[in-house]
TrEMBL record:
Family annotation (InterPro entries): Acyl_CoA_acyltransferase, GNAT_dom
MF (Gene Ontology): acyltransferase activity, transferring groups other than amino-acyl groups
Organism: Candidatus Eisenbergiella merdigallinarum
The enzyme's E.C. designation: 2.3.1.-
Name listed for the protein in its UniProt record: GNAT family N-acetyltransferase
Pfam families registered for this protein in UniProt: Acetyltransf_3 (PF13302)
Family annotation (CDD domains): NAT_SF
Keyword Glycosyltransferase among UniProt keywords: no
Amino acid sequence: MLYLKKANLEDGDKEYEFYSLLPENENGFTNVFCGISRERFLSDVLPAMIGYDRGIGLPEGYVPETSWFLWEDDEIVGLFRIRHRLTDSLRSGAGHIGYSIRKGFRGRGYASEGLRLAVEKAWEVIEEDEIYLSVHRDNPASLAVQQKNGAYIHHADEGSYYTRIPRD
């Protein structure tokens, strides 16, 4: 069974394992915790990540963000970050949702179903009439995932497509 679950302390070891396998920057998804120790992840990073969901301890210029792990039964296969609102830089860049699927699970529909579930969660906190996303031009699979979930290309530049999913 595939489902989303918020970052939490009880699943910290599995969440750390997922983060430890993510590259520092892949297709625009950044892992600022790349190379961090398990101990520091569990004692500092994970509690901060959980606080960000409630707007607690946010770095200057950041907005509340919920980290949702995509689980297949008892294994984490992906991560979806939902930013609750947009700053000017998010509006013209990354947007509301960023996601990554674990290598070995790509190309099997996890991103499409995970984004569908994430969009449902996003509408609970996002006030805008559209969900903003972006995707690198050299990542057509992710563009297809977004379009499968109702996104249209709003505009593009040399490196990225900027897509929108309208509220139904």
